[in-house]
Amino acid sequence: MLDPEVLARTLPGCESLESLGDNQYKMRMKLALASVQRLFDGKVSLEDQQPPSSYRLRVSGTGKIGFVNGSGQLKLEPCGDSETVVSYEGEVKVGGMIAAVGQRLLDMTSKMMTKRFFLALVAEFNPVASD
Predict the structure, then answer these.
(1) Using one digit for the tens of pLDDT, what is the confidence trace for 14-38?
(2) Residue 11 DSSP class
(3) Residue (of 61, 24, 20) closest to 44 by Cα position
(4) CA-to-CA distance for 112 and 90, rounded, in angstroms?
(5) In what order do the strands lie in the sheet with 14-21?
(6) Contact status, residue 43 vs residue 26, Cβ threshold 8 Å
(7) What's the maximum distance between 2 C-alpha atoms anywhere in the chain?
(8) Which CATH superfamily is domain 4-125 in?
(9) What does pLDDT average to over the chain?
(10) What is the β-pairing status of strands 24-33 and 14-21?
């Protein structure tokens, strides 16, 4: 889950991810919110790494319609010989025109993006389970 190639494939809307060094990456992502779809340029950081049990994923981006900043603490716990339970908690902050769409729509979008991220991780590590 710390591999930048895996992150590029699993982060929703990620179009490119380039290393800046020290677990930081320049990112270009497409964010769709309601009927608006825009590109954001930003950064992804992997922080507070405690291999193999936890790390923090921080994402920030700006675009013509505002900004998005979010972070999530991911905790990994072995479950048997071949499974890992992943739990997370996080927060997202938005500003600019993007914030005008309303809290309910923002909540739904952030939940959808989180779900897509975890479904993409499942597909990445266990292609049969995602079908």
Answers:
(1) 999 999 999 999 999 998 776 777 8
(2) S
(3) 24
(4) 14
(5) 14-21, 24-33, 36-50, 54-63, 66-79, 83-95
(6) yes
(7) 47
(8) START domain (3.30.530.20)
(9) 88
(10) antiparallel
Question: Tokens in use for 89?
Answer: 């908690």
**How many of the other CB atoms lie within 10 Å of CB of 109?**
19
Domain ranges of the chain: 4-125
Tokens of 70: 């979010």
What pLDDT, on a 0 to 100 scale, did the predictor assign at position 129? 56
Residue 101: predicted pLDDT: 78
Identify whether the C-beta of residue 18 lies closer than 8 Å to the C-beta of residue 26.
Answer: yes
Confidence of residue 111 (pLDDT cuts 50, 70, 90): confident
Question: At residue 111, what is the residue type?
Answer: K
pTM of the predicted protein model: 0.81
Distance (Å, whole) CA 44 – CA 27:
7
Number of helices followed by number of strands (H, E) in the chain: 2, 6
Which residue is it, tokens 């309303």?
102
Q: What is the DSSP string of 29-46?
A: EEEEETTEEEEEEEEEEE
- At 105, the pLDDT band (50, 70, 90 cuts) reads confident
